[in-house]
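Hi everyone,

Forwarding the result from last night's run.
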Amino acid sequence: MTKDPMDRDDEARELPEPETPAVSEDVPEDLPEEAVEGESAAVPEAEPEPEAEPELALELEAEPEPGPEPVVRSSDGRRRLRAALWPPRASRGQLVVALLLFSLGLGLAIQVRSTNDHSALRGARQDDLVRILDELDSRQQRLQQEKTQLDQSYAQLENSSNQAKEAQQQTRQKAAELGVLAGTVKATGPGIVLTVDDPQGQVKADMLLDTLQELRAAGAEAIQINDVRVVADTYFTDVPSGGVQIDGKGVAQPYRFTVIGNAQDLTPALNIPGGIVRTLEREQVGTSITEQQKVTVDALAVPRPPQYGKPAAK
């Protein structure tokens, strides 16, 4: 029984890939082209096997139809890219490569910069190069002159500082020496100690003054009588009730002269014939002289400003 063409169309819609009709295989090769073109009307169609159609239908029903492709959102892509980049997960090899690339880039940058710095001189004319060289020579000469001036100024300041320091030291030393003579500072050194014992009160002010004059003439530098410092304006006075005053201060006997100077000159000067020792012995006054390697004169005099004398103008 021949199937209706409408039924064949329905079967073609149900099957996505219809099989090629078997009729085309039975066509002889020697038939003319007109016969082949009209084979659909002349040759009867072969009936399909009833047992193969259900199996083919089942297989087609089992295959799932391809669905639409999933749509990838841009937000999901950015989230995946961010998750892949952060936190950074660099290996040791990647760090070494990055360091080498950085070093290479730095070297290239330095080389390019140095090349650019010298490019101006490379393209300059000979006259410009000569002018630049002359300017450099002139600048070097100016710098050398400035260095020489600074060295000279430094030497002058150093000499001035040394001179000022030396002058200050000499001034202090001279002030100390004058202070010894003026009786404003303590003094120490070799000398003698002269003791005059007068239990009967025979010693007068003029005898003490003569003793002082002989000590000064023998080279005494600092003299102290008991606790009174003897200076240039020291004076002696007799007290009516007995005794002697030095610079207005009463001095009790025995009178003790502490003298700084050369003992080899001071002792013979006191013991010469007709000297103060012989004079005191005639008055039955006892005297004793002791030479010492270190004598200290610690009494101080209060300087009195001159009443009439003033420094002379140069």
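Strands lie at 187-197, 222-225, 228-230, 236-238, 244-246, 249-251, 255-260, 286-297.

Cheers,
N.
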